[in-house]
Amino acid sequence: MPHPSPVYTRIARAAMSCATAAATMVWSGAAHAGSHGWSRSVHGPYGHGYTAQRQVSRSPGTATASRSVQTDSGHGYTSTRTTTRDDGTLTNTWTRTYDNGKTASRSGTVTRGEDGVTVQRDVRTASGATASRTTTYTPGN
Questions:
Q1: Which residue ranges make up each domain of the chain?
Q2: pTM over 0.70
């Protein structure tokens, strides 16, 4: 099997760094368990404005962050990011749903096994296009 290109190697290292940071956040969940959030509403003198909210909750093995934005003119979205950890697998999913009903999503899973580390990435755009990539990094390569 040929070696991955330097670009994909950098992407994989960045993905592993993000996964490590997310895992640290999730694995330390017992110390930071709970939820918090905020809500903000801003309106100008001519009827223009928006309302935004964010909520974060953590429990051992899981962290979820939700955000919604709604403008006074009727445009907006809701997005949710969830990170979970279970037996050598770290999964991060992100979904954004727009007011018109269209949805975009990304997910990534990093799994550590005897043969190395497998990284699975999936993307779905609001227009419906999809992409998927799975890469396994073995020790010594």
A1: 6-137
A2: no
